[in-house]
Amino acid sequence: MTEKQNNNNSIIISKNLENNIKYIKEEMGNSSDLTIRQFNLGINSDSRAAMIYINGLVDKRFVQDFMLEISNNIVDVDRSTFMKKNLLEYLMSFPLSAGEVKEVFSLEKIILDILLGSTIIMLEGYEKSISINTSHSEGRKVEMPTSQPVIRGPKEGFVEDIGVNLSLIRKRVKDKNLRIEKYLIGRITKTDVRLVYIKGIADEKIVEEARVRLGRIDIDGILDSGYIEELIQDEPYTPFPTIFSTERPDTLVADLLEGRVAIAVDGSPFILTAPSVLIQFFQASEDYYDYFITSSFIRMLRYLAYLLTMLTPALYIAMTTFHQEMLPTPLLISIAAQREGIPFPVFIEIFIMEIAFEIIRESSTRMPRTVGSTISIVGVLVIGQAAVEAGIISAFVVITVSLTAISSFATPDNKMALSARLLRFAFIILSVTFGLYGIVMGLIVLTLHLCSLRSFGVPYTSPISPFVGYEMKDSIFRALICKTKLRPKSISKENLVRQGEDAPHKPRNKK
To answer: Looking at the keywords, is Membrane present (predicted)?
Structure first.
């Protein structure tokens, strides 16, 4: 077979159908799931055609409907009629119940489309073919999000099918300015990745930066959005997440309306949004569905719980080891009485219990769901009680570590909660070495580190530093929705006004 090449050094389609089929089979290693169905066109016609697809990736109903359509429209057509028609155009004019229908001119593109779930129609004597998007896969149906549940609010969550996820976004954003750009990333996996944003709201510089970062990725495979997150983030050497991820469509759309861009990856129920700031990881979608006073109070509890997760063990070590004079005398006597007979210093007690809790937490996560909750609850109670009775650990240490563990669950974003769990050990080491002075030094270094972080060029600590007054209405606290008329300009300076001037007013008192 003589292989013709175009300007891009890709092998173009031969007019000989058998040569094309042979090439495709050889390139795909005669794969067992590669299906090739050859058939004649019309009565007394030597025109041959082939339908090529991968079994399991295409919708079988389309294949059956297409063959039936051919039988009804072409079989009775004689050869003289074929000589007067362009068969490709004739086939493309069929009212097919499928997705995108396009022409392809190279065998490499044909193979790529086959791998993406398309059905290829090739004809004898033509140097081009028809590619029909018939991709279909059996996946998980839309159900309640598992990692971001709410009491009040939508119960829909993203799934592994990127088409379903995009439809959930379209369902909520019925606007012509919603833009979805497609990328194929991964030399081997060729994973479908989509860049989503609202034109006129998202900053064009942010959109272009996202395009550049996605275009620079050169890797053999992308299996989850976590790959993309790590490859495009500004600062990889930090315990804090700088790109937000969510499996809730309402949360994603809220981010798009604030001017952020989203990155969806086929096969992953978590969609990334950027730029992301620190306070975003302490907010939940339910904050905007409940009364603003209640939401503000709960947000304060989340910040407090994060600090407790990070600092409680370190403070206990510092106060009981270096700064006993700061404790009330009755409390100090009680702690000393409980520590009588304990063979280990305080920081060893803390380390033992913290490591035990982390092992139990990880075990409960990896175990089957029906068993995991039992391990996490019963395991903690049994180990803690047994350690106290054995005289290895004091009761105050068990209380301290338990408070730390419970507080870690109050952070809505799991990645941010993990950062507190990691930093907790760093502060324990500082408190063992320098006491309260070490904790203060650690907090200063941590603050400087947070101020140095960027997410797609946006300061991570915005709107606190740099300070943006009106954005504080939706940061640590949440003001009334009618009071937040502007989008956060730290994210995007495009189309800042999101609400009309005629905001609801207080009802007048009845006379």
So the answer is: yes
